[in-house]
Amino acid sequence: MASEMISGLDLLSSVLNYAKLGKNCVELGCAAIDSLALDGGFRYGEITTIAGSNGTGKTLLAFHALVSYLLHIDQGQVAFIDTSGSFSPMRIRDVIISRLRTMDQSANVKHTGYVYGRFPSRKESGIQEELKWKATQMLDRIKVMRAFDFTGIVEAIGEVSATQDYRLHSKDTRIANEFQAASGENQEIADSDEESERDEIHAARSPIFANVENKRLKEIGGVGQALLTTFMRSLQQLTSQHKTCTLLINSVVGLNPSANASYQQRLEDNVSIFASTPGKPALGKTFAHLIDTSIFLSRVPKTRDDAEFACANTTSGGIDWKSVGVLEVLKDRNGIREGRWAAFEVVDGVQLEGPGG
Length: 357
Hints:
Elements lengths: L7 H14 L3 E2 L4 H6 L5 E2 L2 E7 L5 H15 L5 E5 L6 H24 L11 H15 L3 E5 L3 H35 L9 H10 L4 E4 L2 H5 L5 H19 L2 E6 L1 E2 L26 E2 L2 H6 L3 E9 L2 H9 L10 E10 L8 E7 L3 E3 L4
Parallel strand pairs: 3-7, 3-10, 4-5, 4-6, 6-7
Antiparallel strand pairs: 1-2, 8-9, 10-11, 11-12, 12-13
């Protein structure tokens, strides 16, 4: 299998064009990650995978990207294809509330110099109920599809593609009708409001979130990689044609030693820049070739003392060692983010912050 030939000049132009796009991406709302590692966020028109073991924050990062899109695009909708039952409406509502509160506090600081924790402009209970109502209303713009096998994932992507095609056709028809009406009256079409036009463009770029798990491929036997390749080709076409931000949540292999010597993970097979972090993204080299950006999540000790406790596999004074999350960019086909990384902490189970707040 080989891709089409691309000249070096075209590749350079692609990289420079992506650099110019700047904010044309979906951010996570965490400055440490957005600026240090992702150069603004997850890009439109690309397939990005987020790989990590259990508890590293894969789904939480996807939730924050989803919420960022909904907060900035009033008409936007999101497709979430759930293959593992990881979609929790309560948790994502908490993420929305957390982000709304942060935005509200930032606006309050800008206008008054204080947050409501010190000089409240209205009662805290009223604030919480208002944020909860807003978050609940936003859930209506998240379209969740459960897929119980690989065939279900393919069908779900097909439904998303059909919906995107319908939106594009409807927009083209509306523009044609407006032009025809304006021509008949010998008038020029009035320029639409810039903010409304921007929202409409981004609303047509609805992000797609999906879990693509190794066990789903095992269910279909030896033809799994062939079906995966076909599926990824169609997903590439959808993502490129509609400029969607497509996120795939992947698992990690090589975390535990194998009893079979031929399957044992070697140190040089590990992908992290941290020597103590084992594993690599699942689904093999073919899958890695078919994506644009590869993100790897792990957890490492927070301080030197924590590292010593972790290596000794013990605790000190009954206190467990603390850790922080690490996001690494393993691959960036269209940019220069490869090799970048950033540390982050999860506060109250939903909020992303840089180490130390």
